[in-house]
Amino acid sequence: MIPGNKILDNNLLDMLGNQPSLHKLYSQISSVYAVTDPEVHGHIIHTLRNGLERLAESFPWLAGYVINEGASEGVTGTYRIVPTDKIPLVVKDLRDDASAPTMDAMRQAGFPFRTLDENAIAPCTTINIPGIPIGLVDDHGPVFAVQANFMKEGELAVGNMDKSQSVQLPDASWEPGAEIEHQLLKPPVEESDESTKSQGTRPRLSWGYVNFPRTSLKALKSEAMATKPADSDFVSTDDAICAFIWTCLSRARANRLQIDTNTTFARAIDVRSRLGLPATYPGALTNMTYNRSSIGAVGGQSLGSVASDLRNQLNPSVTDLAYNTRALATFLSRCADKSQVLVTGCVDPSSGIMLSSWAGVSLYDLDFNLGLGRPEAVRRPRFFPVESLIYIMPKSPRGDMAVAMCIRDEDWQRLKEDEEWGKFVEFIG
């Protein structure tokens, strides 16, 4: 066996992990468990500590932190993992904190964002701006960290991983083309009158959870299959939910945007299998598909038509995600300033959507041997508002699915007034 410190002697991140936009960017997830006996708190902490120690022994890079080297003016440098002796574990007892919700209050409210502020319950923040030291992410970024929060009748475990964590590159004859044009930052353009209500006024944004009950998921999938084009063989439940959100949100936005306003749906895709890599590969192997239309067209199409358009972008004969990912990695390997790459850079957040689905991640099956059974809820904690960022949460044992959305307050209001939206969606907040 090779000692962990030797494994990490030269642990440079893979090329996709060298995107500056991913450094100190964390994917946070919280699992909420009911705790009926406070006497088990010691057992929970002991189990977590032992588990993290074993995890660090088997996967030493999880106990490291990411540093940036060789950066200078116009040069973003490289990123690598430096070893440490343990994975950070933060423990907070919030039972006597009057501002902290009780488990029963969270349960009755449906586990909304307002009860899940990352500044209180997470070991660090999702977005960490360079030069602004915050908590664990001060001068470097831990690869992985966990925080256990004890509240009255409950326990909330939050884990995260730095997303800046092998791809065969095209040969030297490759030149950048259309396959990456949507992922390169463009010079800023003057905002239209529709994008903001007045010069210098930022729109009011809010994170909110909505819930799709099991019956709604089944009904939307059935409607999408019934209204899809004849030449479309299949649409998934994920396709149907994405299409439903895009159509309803486009109708809501038509109240403040012209119907011919462009809208882009950017969807994060796991490309490991397309590149012949195992599902357990820990690097940042995701790419995006992009669907483009107009606010009016999307809002007026059938659910099946929009869902089929989204599904079509996953067809290798339409979008070769394996080749596109290799092309992106090649571009990153050749350019000194990698900050010009931003996979959502082509999305106008006032009209588009940036979505990541965790529906297939079986987090509700994880009890971590805490003796508490399965979590009652799995949620992403609330963080800095990013307009049009949407996450589909893992499907619960009941068969329902929560969706986290950050949109303008006026768009929220229009959605709540939308009859079709209200027929299938429960607002949590």
From TrEMBL:
Residues 25-155 form the Trichothecene 3-O-acetyltransferase-like N-terminal domain. One of its GO terms (cellular component) is peroxisome. GO terms for molecular function: trichothecene 3-O-acetyltransferase activity. Signal peptide: none annotated. Gene3D superfamilies: Chloramphenicol acetyltransferase-like domain. Keywords: Transferase. This is Acetyltransferase.
